[in-house]
Amino acid sequence: MAEYIDHDEPIQYALGEPARRTGLGGLSMRATVVLAAGFGCFLLLQLSGMGTVGFVVVIPLTLVIMAVISFTIAGRSVAQYAQIIWQDYQRHHHGAHIYISGGQSRVPGGRRRLPGLLARTEAICGIDSAGQEFVVILDRPRREATVILDVTFTGQTAMTQGERNSMTADWSRWLAGLSLSGDIAQCVVVVATRPGSGSLVANEVRDIISDTAPEIAKRIMLEAAQVISLARPEVLGHIAITVKLDKDSLKDDSFLNQLGTRVPSWASSLQWAGMLAEPLSYEKLVARIHSFFNPATEADFEALAINGAGHDLSWADAGPSVAETFTDSYYHDGARSVSWEMREAPRSTFEDTLLQGLITPHDRVVRKRVALCYRPFEAGVGASRVEAEHRDAMVAANSSKKITSAKAEIRLEHTEAARRAQARGAQLGRFSLFVTATMDRHDDMARVIHDVEQLGAGASIRLQSMRHQQDVGFQITCGVGQVPWSKSSTSSMVTTAS
């Protein structure tokens, strides 16, 4: 985590390496456990006079299992890839990859519910201690509540490097506070870009035009506003904070009062990190999520907001009318989206502007969302994990009589730096990043894929298409509290600890 720096020199940051444990002979801990279990079974068979079975069955089976769970391709083991492909095959076999909502569908009540991970969620409104309305996305079976903060980013304003360093340090302190609370499951920051309709600019111009102004001046102003705002990209952002609940507070919805006292402090402290945050209202949340699934409604929601009218759309009807999951893309209400996950984080150090090219509007990728997921460890758990990682790195670096590999030395340096940062008050967490690009039917999908992957490469991030789970990637980047790691039906991806 960064500290306050008084000078105006750019700071180099680092994420560290993915957490891992080394077992016997440099093997992974899982492979070591499988090897120990296989050796134990082999000994039992030998003692019982069935040595032939041990040689013919147990030893080959142990080696095969070790290879399946140890050999990795693009950050996933063979077993994880097999699980994903098998689940996708079952879904296509039963026709579950096609989603149709509405009165003639199989959705209970004929509603247009959100599909997939979001199907069982519900939205509840509350009033915080500052008197503002806030909305909570509730997942009752998992006992998780997600608060959404609407964010306006001010990072592009003119400022000195010292001010940027202080803002980055405040952001890291805000994340560290999530670890200290002990009940935060994850925090997801979503930055979305889309083409503007020009309605907001035109409405602002109409408000400032005087009634006594000449007709030609009014016409020039309106035409200028129309030209300036034509397809001008807009940036939307929100932060989703997911809190773990207990059974008692979930029964009588008393968690709303508990969250109501924490929401103002979460929002107010973000201003020091260059973000103007406020609780997102129920109507704005439904409009934003529905616009992700149905981009054609963006202009309609904007027009209603300008006129001060509500859209009367509920969370139970915020989903798409039709959606279909393909191997390499996700079709929804006339649009097609492609999602990526971070396969590899930046290996070297980087400055605070690393993600700027990826999150800012792009001329050829008009609609995209970048979701940065942070999963904090509790303070005590993080300290023990750091110490265990450091001991494991020391053993791996000193276990061989040969010259220590550079990779082992680098790992030892990273774990030592993590111990020092932990002693200074930093907290441990895991970062993951997801990207979704949405395009119209006439857009060239291959070109959009190339552009996004090049943007990721420019940020020193290797993006990998979420093949066979494009719908999951799309729903994760919506940023409403659903992440794949806690689900039994999704395979985990290697994440980075810092």
Q: Outline of this structure?
A:
This protein is of the alpha+beta class and 498 residues long. The protein has helices spanning 29-47, 51-70, 78-93, 161-181, 199-208, 215-228, 247-251, 255-269, 282-293, 298-306, 356-359, 379-398, 406-423, 445-458, 470-477, and strands at residues 72-73, 76-77, 98-100, 122-127, 133-139, 144-153, 184-195, 233-244, 275-279, 322-325, 330-332, 335-344, 367-376, 429-439, 462-465, 496-497.
Explain what this protein looks like in three dimensions.
The radius of gyration is 26 Å and the shape is globular. Strands 3, 4, 5, 6, 7, 8, 9, 10, 11, 12, 13, 14, 15 and 16 form a 14-stranded antiparallel β-sheet that branches. A two-stranded antiparallel sheet has the order 1-2. Strand 5 and strand 6 form a beta hairpin. The chain has 498 residues and is of the alpha+beta class. The longest helix has 21 residues, at 161-181. 41% of the residues lie in helices and 21% in strands.
